[in-house]
From TrEMBL, chain A:
Designated name of the protein: AP-2 complex subunit mu-1
Domain MHD: residue ranges: 169-426
Domain of life: Eukaryota
Species whose genome carries this gene: Kwoniella bestiolae CBS 10118
Keyword Protein transport: yes
Alphabetical UniProt keywords: Cell membrane, Coated pit, Endocytosis, Membrane, Protein transport, Transport
PROSITE patterns given in the database record: CLAT_ADAPTOR_M_1 (PS00990), CLAT_ADAPTOR_M_2 (PS00991), MHD (PS51072)
InterPro entries given in the database record: Adaptor_comp_med_subunit, AP2_Mu_C_sf, AP2_Mu_N, Clathrin_mu, Clathrin_mu_CS, Longin-like_dom_sf, MHD, Mu2_C
Phylogenetic placement of the source organism: Eukaryota, Fungi, Dikarya, Basidiomycota, Agaricomycotina
From TrEMBL, chain B:
Keyword Ribosomal protein set for record: no
InterPro entries for this protein: AP_beta (IPR026739), AP_complex_bsu_1_2_4 (IPR016342), ARM-like (IPR011989), ARM-type_fold (IPR016024), Clathrin/coatomer_adapt-like_N (IPR002553)
GO CC term (a single one): endomembrane system
Name this polypeptide is given: AP complex subunit beta
Residue spans of biased composition, Basic and acidic residues class: 609-625
Subcellular location: Endomembrane system
GO terms of molecular function: clathrin binding
Family that this chain belongs to: Belongs to the adaptor complexes large subunit family.
Primary localization: membrane
Coiled-coil regions, chain positions: none
Keywords: Membrane, Protein transport, Transport
Annotated Pro residues bias: 193-209
Length: 428, 766
């Protein structure tokens, strides 16, 4: 159980404070300010002082904090804090000091609904938006009329869906989004390559549709054993997780994904795959230190996918030593710039075609230092997004929609592979 | 309050606005009041003006007024009554949202007067036709119980809650379960007999304790819970899983059933649900004997645990700490998954350190090469703390996997090449442990180590290197020279370094008596005359006497063979591990400590002991835990005792018995023993007697830490590592010297073994 919830700014001023239980006083917020915010040595996200435990998540320029006095579930508290952040984002796009100050009434209202006496309650964004409204979505009369419906939905077995949804055109959009994680050693050996996938769905379907969803997966919860029955185009998923609308029992028994979708956008499932990952980019690096005052870079980038496809917003972050004074960089494609604040050369390529290759050569000048510690050479990071490409090879086989009225529906599928700080190549 | 309020200032303005005839103005004013309250300004003076705005059709405004009331009702108990009417009216509003809001708010106002009006609306709301109102009311019972338990018992709210478990709506079930669990914990903290109330002698005083049977889950309820588990919201699932964890299955079949039904929850997105399911399964799996089921359970547990590693860092950390625990119980579940624990450059430090620990746990012959490559990479990062841990991990791998030891030493030598001060120091410390495990295997690297002598400035690293020099004194040509440099700065060194210097030089002398006569004289002089640590001084005296009276005995004491060290499987005692595994995902499992140790006071803490006493099963666990603690202490006692070997020695070398006796007294031997000893005519015999009986009899009867003459003072400080350092030097090398390899528990048992050996030697002497 969570006893109190706070939002602090960076100076430690309280922006939001809400106590749920009697066992704490408001002044407990001072303890957090003194012990955590003004203490640079704090390295753990949970601090227990006396018998009070503070859980904090730092986001933009605010701290979101849950406080408890019992042996609470740590995973629950953090999940709740992150859920709060997601909800806030969907209400006012960004969670920072300014938006918190501008929306404090709304935040109190939301808190009132999503947590009661320290127990998290309904946190489905779609349902919340039905009766907690902002200036932009003012529909108070409507709310009063259908409040009994709202409450049924907020608590019902399909709390995520209204029963009276109607669309003229029934459509469903499926987005398969894969985040590629790569860790490549200096020698070019793949230390770790896996994919965290997400299947997002936007369902604009009337009535209470029953959906069945199929992938080209071969779920291998038992990795060894049936190695022999491997077919070529099947993708091995190591694990998957589903939105609460998916019948887990059914999945457990016959591996079929069936559900009644929420209306609008939601995350249908997440999955993880570790075998046969197609790495969209190959990098050859050559970094030398010919003298104490200079580092030379040659970075060769190759797009390793079908020439018909394109990668967008490719961004390489190439670290330089801390004592770099200036960098001269030459690139064939895109733009390269030295960012002194972060000690990196940023190489931006807005658009890169499959099978295309390009090279960066750069020289960094170093200031003389007395400090003789070898430069630790952080890894190069590649960010990108490639449309219509899945690193795992996953494909959507089918999406079937059944509804009483028997309407026809149109389905769309998109694929995207991307990396955002997770694609790292160590420098030799 | 009786004073007329001031006619200016912000509060005055707000008051004007709150009483304005325009609705917008009033609504605005309420918002400002809440804003002021949030930043800590006292707004209690506006109470009556705010309450006036309670009667409104605007739901948002109503919510704000309610929020204000929640915060200030306690400060204005006599004015709260103004709001009661509206509250009661709202609980019967046609709009279910308003009904729920009213009952939710009313039950948290901490005012006695309100509570009296609460009973009938609450019983009505508990039976409301709308599930939203029912689920809100269910939690209200827990709130009321927190404020006034008698009320709940009197009106039978707890029974009603119990009935709600059978409700058709899963959310209501979940909240009822959560409320019941909350009330159960709170009720344990209540006194068993209600305080006597003299006024009402005719009727028995109302009990504030609900019938404990209400909290027992019977098989029919279990079925309902298992059904609701698949239907309710993620948070509801967590509440139900917690209750399932408390349930005691009647037979194996039922345990199997629970495991099978809970297993699908592994696929949930919410990490807390996944960990909750792991908890339930770890608990109920104990009763399962069917091999194939156990196998499939552990196999299915692995992928979701790995997936948790891609969560946000804080959740990841909680998961990592729990995985660390699970691996201690079932080391094989993630055997092939080491790669996912590789640290990313941008992981937060707390995550990295945890990953490192898990990687060492998962290290095996198969993956050791990749692991060493990683560790070497980490050792070149910037974060000093992390780098040190990475170096330490190399040593742990060397000790864990015999076949890889050579490669580990290679990596360590490469790291020493870097000449980065903290890397070198840490490497030296780690190599000391490797020498402990594989004596005489890697003597070739000693010259390289010695060449880094000047780089070392930390006591632990210095002490480690000195130990190595002492240990291999016969093989190092210029050992006397090297030790001589430390002797020169003897006075400035810290105590651990002094102790090691002393022991190492004595070792050198025993190995090469001809060349080091002078140096040993010098060190004994320095340690006895110029040192202000009693520990160093005492050890020097003992050595001195040993050397002067019986060099052969000195040899067998100082150069005794040490027990081998190994990497412990667990970092917590087995009984505590079991307790923690039943708490997976909780704070206790994150800290690897039982909850009672950090919650202390509060509604659970102080009464914790009592609670345990009430529950026979938990009592058992507690007892076991206590036993391990006692066992630990005994081991420690034994250790301390082992240092007592010297007493006979010192006595025999001519110290008079009474002196050593008085020292013993200081050390804390119980008075009976002392008098026993005192009575005897021959103190030496008696000591021998005491020694042998005590070490043979159950150590439980032993007095608190019969600290030796040597480590007496340090032992009293109750600092284990100090005590270790104090006594190990006598018969064994610096085992306790911060060797990250041996955990306390393990260390103790080794010491015990070591003690036994040394003791045999000594007894042989007599």
């Amino acid at each position: 159980m969570i006893s109190a919830f706070f939002i602090f700014n960076q100076k430690g001023e309280v922006l939001i404070s809400r106590l749920f239980r009697q066992d704490l006083k408001r002044s407990i917020s001072d303890v957090f300010r003194i012990q955590v915010i003004s203490n640079p040595d704090v390295r753990s996200p949970i601090i227990t002082l006396g018998s009070t435990s503070f859980f904090h998540v730092r986001i933009n320029n605010v701290y979101v904090v849950g406080v408890t006095k019992c042996n609470a579930s740590a995973a629950l508290v953090f999940e709740f804090l992150y859920r709060f952040i997601t909800i806030s984002r969907s209400y006012f796009s960004k969670l920072d000091e300014e938006s918190v100050k501008n929306n404090f009434v709304l935040i109190y209202e939301l808190l009132d609904e999503i947590i009661d006496f320290g127990f998290p309650q309904n946190s489905e964004i779609d349902t919340l938006k039905m009766y907690i409204t902002t200036e932009s979505i003012k529909s108070e009369m409507a709310v009063r009329e259908d409040s009994s419906k709202i409450t049924i939905q907020a608590t019902g077995a399909t709390s995520w869906r209204r029963s009276d949804v109607k669309y003229r055109k029934n459509e469903a959009f499926v987005d398969v989004i894969e985040t590629v994680n790569l860790l490549m050693s200096k020698e070019g050996a793949v230390l770790r390559a896996d994919v965290d996938g997400q299947i997002l769905m936007r369902a604009y379907l009337s009535g209470t549709p029953e959906c069945k969803f199929g992938l080209n997966d071969k779920l291998v919860l038992q990795k060894r054993g049936n190695e022999a029955t491997k077919s070529d185009d099947a993708v091995e998923l190591d694990d998957c997780q589903f939105h609460q609308c998916v019948r887990l029992g059914k999945f457990d028994s016959d591996r079929s994904i069936s559900f009644i979708p929420p209306d609008g956008e939601f995350e249908l499932m997440r999955y993880r795959s570790t075998s046969n990952i197609n790495l969209p980019f190959r990098l050859q690096t050559h970094v030398t230190e010919p003298s104490k005052s200079r580092v030379e870079y040659t970075i060769h980038l190759r797009a390793n996918f079908d020439p018909k496809l394109n990668a967008n917003n490719v961004l390489l972050r190439i670290p330089t030593p801390l004592n770099t004074t200036g960098v001269q960089a030459k690139v064939g494609v895109g733009k390269a710039k030295y960012v002194p604040g972060e000690n990196v050369i940023v190489w931006k390529i807005p658009r890169l075609q499959g099978a295309q290759e390009c090279t960066l050569t750069a020289e960094a000048d170093l200031a003389a230092t007395t400090h003789r510690q070898a430069w630790s050479r952080p890894p190069i990071q590649v960010d990108f997004s490639v449309v219509m490409f899945t690193a795992s090879g996953l494909l959507v086989r089918f999406l079937k929609v059944f509804e009483k009225s028997g309407y026809q529906s149109v389905k769309w599928v998109r694929y995207l592979s991307k990396a955002n700080g997770s694609y790292q190549i160590r420098v030799s | 309050m009786a004073m007329a309020p001031p006619r200016k200032g912000e509060n005055y303005e707000l008051r004007q606005q709150l009483n304005s005839e325009y609705r917008d103005k009033r609504a605005d004013a309420i918002k400002r009041v809440i804003a002021n309250h949030t930043i800590g300004k006292d707004c209690s003076g506006l109470f009556p003006d705010v309450v006036k705005n309670m009667q409104t059709d605007d739901l948002e405004q109503k919510k704000l007024v309610y929020l204000y009331l929640m915060n200030y009702a306690k400060t204005q108990p006599e004015l709260v009554i103004l709001a009661v009417n509206t509250f009661v009216k709202d609980t019967a509003d046609p709009n279910p949202l308003v009904r729920a809001l009213a009952i939710r708010t009313m039950s948290v106002l901490r005012a006695e007067k309100i509570l009296d009006y609460l009973a009938s609306p609450l019983s009505r709301c508990l039976k409301d036709e709308n599930p939203y109102v029912r689920k809100t009311a269910a939690l209200c019972v827990a709130k009321v119980f927190d404020l006034k338990p008698e009320l709940c018992v009197e009106y039978g709210f707890v029974e009603t809650l119990r009935d709600l478990i059978g409700d058709g709506n899963p959310m209501v079930v979940a909240n009822a379960v959560a409320a019941l669990a909350d009330i159960y914990e709170a009720s344990l903290a209540l006194p068993t007999t209600p305080p006597a109330s003299p006024g009402r002698s005719s009727t028995p005083p109302p009990s504030s304790k609900p019938n404990p049977e209400l909290f027992i889950i019977d098989p029919p309820t279990l079925t309902k819970l298992l059904v609701a588990l698949n239907e309710c919201s993620e948070w509801g699932r967590i509440a139900i899983l917690n209750t399932l964890a408390r349930y005691r299955a009647v037979d194996e079949k039922e345990s199997e059933h629970i495991c099978e039904r809970v297993m699908p929850q592994f696929q949930h997105v919410n990490a807390a649900v996944v960990l909750g399911a792991v908890k339930v399964i770890m608990i109920h799996m104990k009763a399962v004997t069917r091999e194939d089921l156990i196998k499939s359970l552990t196999r299915k547990m692995a992928p979701p645990l790995v997936t948790l590693i891609s969560s946000p860092p804080e959740v990841q950390w909680v998961a990592l700490r729990n995985i660390n625990l699970l691996l201690q119980k079932r080391p094989d579940i993630l055997a092939n998954e080491m790669r996912v624990f590789f640290c990313k450059y941008n992981d937060p430090p707390y995550v990295k350190v945890e990953k490192l620990d898990i990687m060492v746990r998962l290290a095996s012959e198969k993956n050791v090469d990749t692991l060493l490559g990683e560790l070497k990479e980490y050792a070149s990062e910037v974060d000093v703390d992390f780098v040190r841990k990475a170096v330490r991990a190399v040593g742990q791998v060397a000790i864990k996997i015999d076949e890889a030891a050579e490669r580990c030493v290679g990596v360590l030598m490469d790291l020493i090449e870097t000449r980065v001060s903290y890397v070198v120091q840490e490497a030296v410390i780690v190599i000391k442990d490797i020498f402990r495990k594989y004596p005489h295997s890697y003597e070739g690297i000693i010259p390289t180590l010695c060449s880094n002598l000047e780089e070392l400035d930390e006591p632990e690293a210095k002490a480690s290197l000195i130990w190595i020099i002492g240990e291999y004194a016969e093989k190092i040509e210029n050992a006397d020279e090297l030790l001589g440099t430390f002797l020169e700065s003897f006075k400035e060194e810290s105590y651990p370094v002094q102790l090691q210097t002393l022991t190492a030089i004595v070792k050198l002398f025993l190995k090469k008596p001809d060349e080091s006569q002078t140096i040993v004289q010098k060190v004994l002089q320095a340690a006895t005359k110029d040192c202000d640590s009693a520990d160093v001084r005492d050890r020097a005296y003992i050595y001195w006497r040993l050397l002067s009276s019986d060099p052969a005995a000195a040899k067998s004491v100082v150069l005794a063979v040490r027990p081998p060290i190994s990497l412990p499987q667990t970092t917590v005692a087995p009984a505590i591990l079991e307790e923690l595994l039943a708490e997976v995902s909780s704070l206790a499992s994150v800290y690897h400590k039982p909850a009672a140790t950090f919650i202390g006071k509060g509604r659970l803490g102080a009464e914790e002991m009592q609670r345990r006493a009430l529950e026979p099963e938990e009592e058992n666990a507690r007892e076991k835990a206590l036993q391990t603690v006692v066992a630990g202490q005994q081991a420690e006692n034994l250790l301390d005792f082992d240092a007592d070997d010297d007493q006979p020695q010192s006595s025999s070398s001519g110290i008079d018995g009474s002196q050593s006796l008085s020292m013993l007294g200081n050390g804390g031997i119980s008075s009976t023993t002392i008098s026993n000893v005192a009575k005897s005519t021959n103190p030496l015999d008696e000591l021998m007697d005491l020694f042998s009986t005590a070490s043979m009899a159950a150590p439980a009867t032993m007095p608190v830490a019969p600290v030796s003459t040597v480590s007496g003072i340090q032992g009293l400080q109750d600092d284990r590592s100090d005590a270790f350092a104090g006594l190990t030097g006598l018969s064994s090398p610096p085992q306790g010297l911060g060797s990250g390899v041996t955990s306390p528990v393990q260390g103790q048992s080794q010491q015990k073994a070591g003690g036994g050996g040394a003791q045999d030697d000594l007894l042989g002497l007599f």
